[in-house]
Structure formats: structure tokens, C-alpha cells
From TrEMBL:
Name of the protein this chain belongs to: Putative transposase IS891/IS1136/IS1341 family
Keyword Glycoprotein: no
Keywords on record: DNA recombination, DNA-binding, Transposition
Record domain Cas12f1-like TNB: where: 299-363
High-level lineage: Bacteria, Bacillati, Cyanobacteriota, Cyanophyceae, Oscillatoriophycideae
Similarity section: In the C-terminal section; belongs to the transposase 35 family.
GO biological process: DNA recombination; transposition
Residues in Probable transposase IS891/IS1136/IS1341 domain copies: 177-288
Entry GO MF terms: DNA binding
Length: 438
């Protein structure tokens, strides 16, 4: 699965129609969620049946394409499943009880309710919301794909306008030639001091997008607040200021994404195995003193892209538990206590390293040992039988290549972009977590 995004410039009356479609999708979502809350124990079937009832009851719901209504129900199901999942896994803290949405920004169609023009430069929405025909702006060429490969179409409202996304059923691995093995493995330690430090001694400084933009953002935010009138309908000037503020944020988040993507791709291209810490960023952001810098750095984005590119280019990505990686000596394994402010690792064995490079080495070691132990009994016997049948013709290194790519595909399943699409439920009728226990 993979996503192509195009900007569109709807006319004012089309904007109204799109906003109404989005609004309707949100209405369905919230109604279905309310129904689930009020009727303990109802499952998927009842929720879909309730959706059908809503379509009969409200004309504006009926006007939205029926599959688009279904995706709204699927969104609720996803939230519910996630909540049950978190409870089952006993994740500490809040479990994410599904909440009502009041600021939905998108509506998602499946394979009906829209039609592409002959040259695929225009899309027409054909349901009764009357969005009509939109020109797809940009250089993305949809002619490259089969229409049947387009499984979802989504209209998104952002601070700087409207976009149409196409979710295309295509294995990203099929779109690229496998890279020539670099014969290198690397451990990556992310930190507050650097964006990351790797076991090869490279250090990537933190991009201070947010900090740089901070003054501007604060100024825009102050202007917005000044125009806010408590208990009144907000003025046109308030909304102008609010949009300006939102656009500035959007710019920063795009810069951040671009950066994470670029750095991740570089690491994947120049290594065959990448090990990194399985950090609990959510827990760390709760620490107020670290919060701004952590969310600024964007590790989760970075990790998402690492795993995506790892899958795409058939490289191994391993997340290792973050335990004592910065304290232990990467040379002799002895624990050398140091506080956050101690930047250099000095061990009695004579090993002197930058704190984060030492950690990166530990992470690489852990990563390598994890990979060595992940082969299940069945998998091992498979390897042994392959070895037995390869009558001396098989070079052991190609076999290792096979194992690595096997693992790469099992470790990584989706691109960070696709998370919002809930790809896992698009093709099967059983959303994850829904199959047995409900
Ligand atoms: Zn040592």
C-alpha cells in the first residue's frame, strides 16, 4: 500500500460541499460511537446496521456515498479495538477510551463515489454531496497505476487548503530494485543532545525547526489570542489569525517530516541492518522538562520512516529494549553510572567514547543478538533443510541475505503515511484485535 497525494483548488461552493461531506462523516462517526457507548457489548455487525438506520433516518447521511459512511464506522471500530488492545496489553496510564470528534478534517471514500477522468488529471465525486469535478494539481501521475489498485480516496482539509489522497494497493518493494548490500550494520541512539549518534561515530545534530520558528509561532499565537472573544461568536479577524497560526505550524511539521525521511533513507541506503532503541516517547513527552525538545526532535516520525524504508529496500530494522544502553560499557560490558549531563563515557577498561556513540554500539550489539535469536524452531529447520538441499551450490552469504530480508518483511508492515488509513483492515473483514475476543 502506498499513498499518492494531490492538491486541489475547489471553488467556494465545492468547498462547502466538501466540508459538508466531512461533517457528515464526523456525524456518522460520533453517532455510531454514542450508540456503542449506550449499548454495552454491541459488535461490528450492530454498528454497521445502525449506520444503515442512520442513512434511512437522515437525508444528509444518505447523500454521502454509502462506502464513505462505512469508513466512518470503521474509524470507530479502529478506535474501539485500539482501546481494547491497550487494556489487554495492560499499557500503563490512559487506555485511550474512544472520544467524540469535533474537528474531523477528512472524508474517505472506497472504490465508489468517485471517477477519474480519461487522462486522470481530474476527479469527479459522484455522490449526492455535489462536490463535483476537481483538478488534480501537481506532477503525480496516476496513469502509472491500474484503477483497480486504487482502494481508497480521501479528501483532506489542511491549514493551507484541500488535498486528495489515493491509497494504492502496491507493495513498495515492487517499485524499487533491491540495493546492493552495503555490508554494514549500525546502531542508532537518539538523544536530546543530537538527533542521533550512530555506532560508526557519525553524529547528526538536532534540527531546531521548532525553536527557530518558535518566536514566529508565539507571535502568531499571541495575535490569535488577542482577537479571541470569550462567549461571543468569533470575528473574521480572529479566524484569519487562527489560520495564519495553523499554516505556520503546518510548515514546521512538514520540515520535520522531510528531515526525518531524508535521514532515515540515508541510514537505510548505507547499511544492511539498523538497530535502534524501542523508546517510550509517549511516556517521555509527559516529562514537562523534556517535552518540548522531544516532540521537536520527532523520533517517532524518524522510526516510522526507518521501518518503512527498511521494508521497501529489504533491509533489517530491529528495535531493541532500551535498558542500560547508555550506562554499560560497549567494550567490556561493565556498568558505568553517568548522569544525563555526563557527555563522555570513560571506563576503567580504557574505553573512552562519546556517551551516545557508546550507547549506539550497545544498541547494535543488542540488535545483532536479537536477530540471531529470533529464528523460530520451524524457521531454523527450514534453513537446515535448505542447507541440506543446496548441494554445495548455495553460498552461505546469500542464505543470510534471505534470512535478513525475511526478517525485514516481518519486522515492518506499513509505511508511516499509511497508519492513518488503517491499512490492516482495508483488505480483511477482521480488524486487528476484533477476530476472537469480542
Ligand atoms: Zn569498559
Amino acid at each position: 500500500m502506498f499513498v499518492v497525494e494531490c492538491k486541489v483548488k475547489p471553488k467556494p461552493q465545492q468547498i462547502q460541499a466538501i466540508d459538508e461531506a466531512i461533517q457528515t462523516s464526523q456525524f456518522v462517526r460520533n453517532k455510531v460511537l454514542r450508540y456503542w457507548m449506550d449499548n454495552r457489548g454491541v459488535g461490528k455487525t450492530e454498528l454497521f446496521r445502525y449506520n444503515t438506520r442512520l442513512r434511512k433516518e437522515y437525508k444528509f447521511v444518505d447523500d454521502l456515498n454509502s462506502h464513505a459512511c462505512q469508513t466512518a464506522v470503521e474509524r470507530v471500530l479502529r478506535a474501539i479495538n485500539k482501546f481494547f488492545d491497550n487494556c489487554k496489553k495492560k499499557i500503563p496510564g490512559k487506555k485511550g477510551y474512544p472520544r467524540f470528534k469535533k474537528n474531523t478534517r477528512s472524508v474517505e471514500y472506497k472504490v465508489s463515489g468517485w471517477k477519474l477522468s480519461e487522462n486522470r488529471k481530474h476527479i469527479t465525486f459522484t455522490d449526492k454531496k455535489n462536490i463535483g469535478k476537481l483538478k488534480l494539481i501537481g506532477t503525480k501521475d496516476l496513469n502509472y497505476y491500474q484503477i483497480e489498485q486504487i482502494k481508497r480516496v480521501r479528501i483532506i482539509r489542511r491549514a493551507d487548503g484541500y488535498y486528495v489522497q489515493f491509497s494504492i494497493q502496491l507493495d513498495p518493494r515492487d517499485t524499487v530494485e533491491p540495493l546492493i548490500p552495503s555490508q554494514k550494520a549500525v546502531g542508532v541512539d537518539v538523544g536530546l543532545k543530537y538527533f542521533y549518534a550512530d555506532s560508526q561515530g557519525n553524529i547528526e545534530p538536532i534540527p531546531q525547526f521548532y525553536r527557530k520558528a518558535e518566536r514566529q509561532l508565539n507571535r502568531a499565537n499571541r495575535k490569535k489570542s488577542k482577537k479571541f472573544r470569550k462567549g461571543h461568536k468569533q470575528s473574521r479577524n480572529y479566524h484569519k489569525a487562527r489560520c495564519r497560526y495553523a499554516r505556520k505550524h503546518l510548515r514546521v511539521s512538514r520540515q520535520r517530516e522531510e528531515f526525518a525521511k531524508r535521514k532515515a533513507l540515508r541510514l537505510i541506503q548505507s547499511n544492511d541492518l539498523i538497530a535502534y532503541e524501542d523508546l517510550n516517547v509517549k511516556g517521555m513527552v509527559k516529562n514537562r522538562h523534556l517535552a518540548l525538545s522531544i516532540s521537536d526532535v520527532g523520533w517517532s516520525l524518524f522510526r516510522g520512516w526507518l521501518e518503512y524504508f527498511g521494508m521497501k529496500y529489504r533491509k533489517v530494522t530491529v528495535a531493541v529494549p532500551s535498558h542500560n544502553t547508555s550506562q554499560n560499557c560497549s567494550n567490556c560490558g561493565q556498568k558505568v553510572q553517568k548522569s544525563l549531563s555526563t557527555r563522555t563515557h570513560v571506563c576503567s577498561c580504557g574505553c573512552i567514547l562519546d556517551r551516545d556513540v557508546n550507547a549506539a554500539l550497545n544498541i547494535l550489539q543488542k540488535g545483532l543478538s536479537t536477530v540471531g535469536h529470533t529464528g523460530s524452531k520451524a524457521f531454523e529447520s527450514e534453513i537446515l533443510s535448505t542447507l541440506a538441499t543446496a548441494n554445495g551450490g548455495e553460498d552461505p552469504s546469500t542464505l543470510i541475505g534471505v534470512i535478513l530480508s525475511e526478517q525485514a518483511s516481518s519486522v515492518n508492515q506499513e509505511s508511516p503515511r499509511m497508519r492513518g488509513w488503517g491499512v490492516s483492515i482495508i483488505y480483511s473483514d477482521n480488524p486487528p484485535g476484533d477476530n476472537n475476543d469480542q
